[in-house]
Fold 3D domain-containing protein.
Amino acid sequence: MTIRWKTIGARSAALALGAAIALPGLTAHAASTYTAKDSDTFWKLSQQLNLPLQQLMDANPAIDPLNIYAGLKLVIPAAPAANKTMTAASKSAVQKTQAVTTVSGQSLAFSRALDVKATAYSAAAEENGKWGAVDYFGNPLKLGTIAVDPDVIPFGTKVYITGYDFSGLPAGGMTATASDAGGAIKGNRIDIFVPGSRSFVSGFGFQNVKVYVLE
């Protein structure tokens, strides 16, 4: 168990109504604006606009992900034309793609595998601070949510985790999404959300696991 006070840092700055934030790389057309709704989050917008979540985050370092509100003007800038030519490096990367087989027999393509130290956290207020039982983007915590160091595993990344031993998680392995962060989660560390009481989840302790970064 890790006490997971979410560290927003500069993102905690309040936004004035009508302030603009940059959402990069959506279209090759001229820049446009989008008026946020109360239900919008960076995660939902990345899915709706088909943009990498990390790209949105990197372009908006002063934005609090929990403070996207109705009336906020979001700027959708023009994007450069995509280079459709596959370089030798990209061909090599494709050729090196490997696959991991899940306990159900499904084959999942992955680009890299990491040996990391894992802890687990619950929805208890003592572990989540003032933000409550939500991830970094304001979405409710659920099985499959993990906290990461985004410099190691970018936000929005899908992963497959093996090597743990705990009754509160699927036996043999599980898929998860990097959508949370924590002050102690730096480098090759992950924190896995587990439904249940704080005392139950604390039984996970510290475990060495394998994380496969999925394609």
